[in-house]
Amino acid sequence: MNNKIRKPLVAGNWKMNGNNELVRDFVKCLEKTSDVDVVICPPSCYLTAFEQAQFSLGAQNVSSFTSGAHTGELSTSMLKECKVSYVIVGHSERRENHGEANDIVASKVKAVIEAGLVPILCVGEPLEVRESGQVFDFVKAQLDAVASVCSNTYIELAVIAYEPIWAIGTGKTASPEQAQEVHAFIRKELAQLNASAAQSIRLLYGGSVNASNANELFAQNDIDGGLIGGASLKIEDFTAICQAAS
Ligand code: 13P
């Protein structure tokens, strides 16, 4: 993957896992890698516990509003005060379980970019869409919704993660060829909006990435790293995945 022009990025999405001890272990033991951008996205209550970490911090969600009566939500300015640089937006678990439709996801991407943070925009299809051969249409609709709200410049400022829902937490990884095919499609779609930015935007694969399959996935032309769930909770596994990206 070193022959690519894009610097690899590996982000760990802890989801609703972890505790103070895991935070301490990561701060102490996760080594700095100069040739890979590493991001940890813990539950928001741990964000401020990561002082002096060797890696960047990401949030798992954000409000599109700046302040006000939004119980349980966090604004971009609050995340910035917690030294967050990246925000996962539109994860399938939020789309499915928290009613985040494409338009809400788009407004969040806009808010994140306007705040000077980097959105990690998640896209990806459920199993029935893959089985019906509609993957490209489904992903295109997710991308189009964001482009219609954010203008084409969002491509220069975002990271996009392709996470097929059927591969998340199932141990059923997309094959490198399946993943590459969709990544190439995403880059081609983005190129129609902004050709040069499409070459520099980083596209991550997510869905049951582990220390054994990371090498082959990251070796694909249009895969620039990963968004890692379960395997980001174990330092040895996560370290091996980061090394696979370097
Ligand atoms: P797993 O790596 O556990 O499949 O999760 C992927 C994911 O949803 C990362 O955001």
Report on the structure:
It is a single chain. With 246 residues, the protein is of the alpha/beta class. It has one domain: TIM Barrel. The protein has 11 helices and 8 strands. An 8-stranded parallel β-barrel has the order 1-2-3-4-5-6-7-8, surrounded by 4 helices. Helix 4 packs across helix 6 and helix 6 runs parallel beside helix 8. The longest helix has 18 residues. 42% of the residues are buried. The model has no long low-confidence stretch (mean pLDDT 95). Bound molecules: 1,3-dihydroxyacetonephosphate.
Name some characteristics of this structure:
246 residues; alpha/beta; TIM Barrel; eight-stranded parallel beta barrel; 41% helix; globular; binds 1,3-dihydroxyacetonephosphate
Note the topology.
Blueprint: E1 9-13, H1 20-29, E2 37-41, E3 56-59, H2 76-81, E4 84-89, H3 92-97, H4 102-114, E5 118-123, H5 127-131, H6 135-150, H7 154-157, E6 159-162, H8 176-193, H9 195-200, E7 202-206, H10 214-218, E8 225-228, H11 235-245
Parallel strand pairs: 1-2, 1-8, 2-3, 3-4, 4-5, 5-6, 6-7, 7-8
Helix pairs in contact: 4-6, 6-8
The structure holds 1,3-dihydroxyacetonephosphate.
